[in-house]
Please model this.
Amino acid sequence: MTSKERMMTAFRRGKPDHVPVCPDISVMVPSKLTGRPFYELFLDGREHNGWTSATYSEAYVEAVKHFGMDGWYIYGGLKEIRSPDAPEFIDQIIDQGDKKVVRRTCNTPEGALTEEEVYYSDEPPWRSEKPIKNLKEDFERFKLWMGPDNWRWEQEYHDRHRIGDHGVYVAMIPVFQDWWFHYRQGGFEQCFMDFVSEPEFMDEVHEFWMEWALAYVRAMIVAKPDEIMLGGSSASLSVSSPKIFRKYELPFIKAASKICRNAGTLSHLHICGRSWELVQIVADETEVDVMEPMEEPPGGNVDLAEAKRRVGKKLCIKGNINTFDFMMNASPSQVEEKCKRLIDVAGPDGGFVLSTGDQCGRDTPQANLFKMVEVAKTYGMY
Model:
């Protein structure tokens, strides 16, 4: 089987030739492997002062080949077809030597929106300023930038050739809390204060987002990805609550997974951190096909054997090895033992992808990643 066939078979809860192995290396490990400053990879294709960047998506594919793993390409998307008179963010790139600061300004008829992102030489970028600062005033400006006149997209993915048969091509959309956190100044604390102090206004924000999100899901369906991922890191019970999940996330997850099921496209939900209660809600009340990363303690609270028993007939399970401690500090023999145990409890009858509990850190020993791949290809044979 190719990596793509192997992953898709498991996602459909089938048995491939061996347990797929797809540690979440995301962006830090691939970027480090290139030996280049990270800002050259994350400032995708931009030109500034004579230098032009490569892309972290290309770095990811090269890392997949390097480790011999099954790829999970989440870096593409559909190009938005903007209205000719839509306001745009204009970038100003400030070179500070070991980092680049990108200052963005969008002038709307209701006033300006500003944001700032810092691109480092050895770390992923960080949004140091977000556009929605004054809740109601800035959101009115934000709506002028975002849509709905701009809710049209091209009908094909121009980068899907990059991953090819080395893995699955994933279309990705954030769930509401992720989306709001991305644009709202003040971090999680401010986001949750908005939910509590301005519930009626946040209902309006959520309704606006739902219309956009479902329009985007339908556009992605037309472009035919291998699967659609609903990104929900900020919905984690490490920071949020089941009550908030049911109010803001579950209606969308139900609707989006139903659209995907009716179209014959797989849906895939990512919720990191503490998620066991949400795993059960999703299995019982939605049509989601795959869920990850079902993190183990201490970062999460999912026991993979229990998850297999409880939801394994409904969900493909992808996970769940701790990254910030175990993958960083364990020996290859310890990684081998853990991978074998997870294959024993979650691998029978298929529907399991051996993975990590979230993104592996930049300095994760390569030997530990190679060991994961080795165990899946040998011990994980069906």
